[in-house]
Structures are given as C-alpha cells and as structure tokens.
Amino acid sequence: MSKTTVTDDQIPSAEKIIATSPLYLLLNRSVRHFGMTIGGGVLLVIFLMAIFAPYLAPHDPYDFDLANKYISPVWAANGSWEHILGTDGQGRDYLSRIIFGAQVSLLIGFAAMLISGVIGTALGVAAGYFGGRVDMVITFLITTRLAMPVILVALAVVALVGSSMWIVIWVLGLLIWDRFAVVMRSTTQQVRNMDYVASAQALGCSTARIIMSEIMPNIVNALIVVATLEVAHAVLLEAALSFLGLGVQPPTPSWGLMISEGKGMMFFKPWVIAIPGTALFMLVLCINLLGDGIRDVTAPENRN
Fold this sequence. Notes:
The chain is mostly helical. It has one domain (22-58, 91-302): MetI-like (MetI-like fold, Orthogonal Bundle), CATH 1.10.3720.10. Helix content is 68%, strand content 0%. It has 13 helices and no strands. It has helices at 14-19, 22-32, 34-51, 53-56, 94-130, 132-146, 150-161, 165-173, 178-191, 195-202, 207-243, 255-262, 271-297. It is elongated. The mean pLDDT is 83.
C-alpha cells in the first residue's frame, strides 16, 4: 500500500492563511482607499480631541475676560501664543471652545443617529420582510415624514418645548429616521428572496431568528453606510439650530453657536466665523469620506 507524501510546499503557511482571510483583505482594501484613510484618520484625531478635551484645552472654555475680548489668532499681527486661536467677544479662549465643541457635535451626531437608526431600521426591516399591508402602512409613514421639512419641524418643536442638548438630540433622532427606513426596506426586500432565507423558513425557524440571523447580517453593510451619513446630517442640523438660537444654549461651546455669536463681527474679525466653520466643515467632510470608503471597500464587486 503506497503512502502519499506531503511536501512542505503543499502545507499552507501562516502568512498565506492570513493573506487570504476576509478580515485581512478588508483591512488591505481600507488602507488602499485614499478617501477612507484620510477621512478616518482625521475623524480619529477629532475623536481623541473630544475624549481628552479636559487635558488638551489650554483654558477653561467657560471663563470669560472682557478685558481680553477679540484677541487675534497667533498668525495675525496682534496674536498671542497664550490664546493660539484668539478669543471671542467675551474673552473666552477660542481653541478651548473648539476642542470642547467637538464633544457637543459628536455626542449630538451619534446619539441622534442611534435613535433614528433604531426607529428607521425596525420600520424598514418590517416593511421589507413582511410586505403587504405592513409595507403599505410603513411606506405611508415614510412618505408622510418625507413631506415634512426637517429643519422647520425641528424649529417648531424646539420653540414649543424649549431648547437644550438632550431635547435637540431627541428631536433630531425622531425626525431623521426616514433614510434608514428607505434603505433598510429596499435591502431587506432583496435579501428575503435569497435561498438561505427560504432554507431557514423551511426548517421552521421563527421570524425573529430569521431576521436576526439571516437578514440583519446581510444588510449591515448598508446600515453602516447610512449611519455615517446620518451622523453628518445630525451634526449639520444641530449647527443650524444652534446658529438660529434654538439649539444648544450658551455658554455651552457649540460650533454652530460660535458661528452665531461671531456673525456680528464677520467683516471686522472674520476668523471668529472662519475657525468654527472650518472645524464643522472638516468634521462633516471626514464623516462623509469615511462613509463613502466603507461603501466602496465592502461592495460585492470589490471583494476579490
């Protein structure tokens, strides 16, 4: 009886196994995606800045000194290294308020996204999986929501019930779920017709088990992409509400509120608007770059 000899070349090495693993391929595609690398890198810096704000801020963002109001940034003629980005109309350090403002924007953006994501995902998956009258009712709700301008409804609600950070979070979370619902409904309709869903139904699996074990893992890619876009959307809406005076209230450092407070000096001290405006632009841009990158690297045609 002959014996089969296995050579060393026929034994897959650890490097070959790692190089062909799905996680390695995903990380490799992510690193090679320019937009995702830039967006994710800058967003990570903003996250770290927000987390370690008490240790990074050179001054208390709430301390005001009217004797030192509107000090120019360090690059201007009358700038000072004591206040690198200058001070606002009440003498508060601008760099410290920008750093702490990142906490406000990220907290509102992610909290509103989580609330809207739970609502929209539940409605979208239910409509896409059950169809029929359930789909008809949820589609009517989505259409009704799309007919209402978000910013106008948010302004009306905040004006009636008052404005604070948590009120803004709940108002935005209850208003921006429509994109989650639309995308989840469409992707669920595609997935529910797959063979593995039919096999699970034939085996007698419960509806909850099919949704959680078969549907959700296959629509999570679209869910992540929509979530990143909605974070940016919530950040912009919060800035707009704060700019109009119905969002985060003084003296809380909010980038939208800082733009609103500096609009009266925009022609004399343009940096009071340019600095928070640039910070807001960079945050939204990086979130969108990250979302686009996730969509690109996880697309089926790019998984080879």
